[in-house]
Amino acid sequence: MTVPEPVIAELRTAAAAAADKLATNIVSYDVGERLGITDAFLVCSAPSERQIGAICEEIEHQLKEQHNSAPARREGKDSGTWVLLDYGHMVIHVQHEQERAVYGLDRLYADVPKIDMDLPEGPSTV
């Protein structure tokens, strides 16, 4: 695995924040060797635009509070169906369940290592 421990700590904070806001299917991928522009992706889903917004807000809040980390850019906040939070060393994708099925990031990165998010087993984790 190529993801540095500080990045894994931030990914776990983001995953926990997403889970707290009832995100589903939370998965993290080590994409560093494949992409070279970021270390990891965190991907999660929600059934509504309102919930996607709440998940993103909580992720940003917790990463700022616990790691003093803020996204370099945000994409898609106005669309409400797929929000991308780019932290440079990691990229967080919060997708509507239908968008996730259509765009298939999980299929695209099925052959890269997953990163254990250390979340309790339940409906929000894979």
Automatic annotation (TrEMBL):
Q: Does the keyword Iron apply?
A: no
Give the record's GO biological process terms: cytosolic ribosome assembly; negative regulation of ribosome biogenesis; negative regulation of translation
A GO MF term:
ribosomal large subunit binding
Signal peptide extent: none
Principal place where this protein is found? cytoplasm
Give GO cellular component annotations, separated by semicolons: cytoplasm
Name the keywords, alphabetized: Cytoplasm, Repressor, Translation regulation
Subcellular localization, per the record?
A: Cytoplasm
- Known Pfam families for this protein? RsfS
Which family is it part of?
Belongs to the Iojap/RsfS family.
Task performed by this protein: Functions as a ribosomal silencing factor. Interacts with ribosomal protein uL14 (rplN), blocking formation of intersubunit bridge B8. Prevents association of the 30S and 50S ribosomal subunits and the formation of functional ribosomes, thus repressing translation.
Q: How does it assemble?
A: Interacts with ribosomal protein uL14 (rplN).
NCBIfam families noted in UniProt: rsfS_iojap_ybeB (TIGR00090)
Looking up PANTHER family in the UniProt record yields: IOJAP SUPERFAMILY ORTHOLOG (PTHR21043), MITOCHONDRIAL ASSEMBLY OF RIBOSOMAL LARGE SUBUNIT PROTEIN 1 (PTHR21043:SF0)
**What HAMAP family does this protein map onto?**
Iojap_RsfS (MF_01477)
User: What is the recorded name of this protein?
Assistant: Ribosomal silencing factor RsfS
Species source reads: Nesterenkonia alkaliphila
What gene name does this entry carry? rsfS
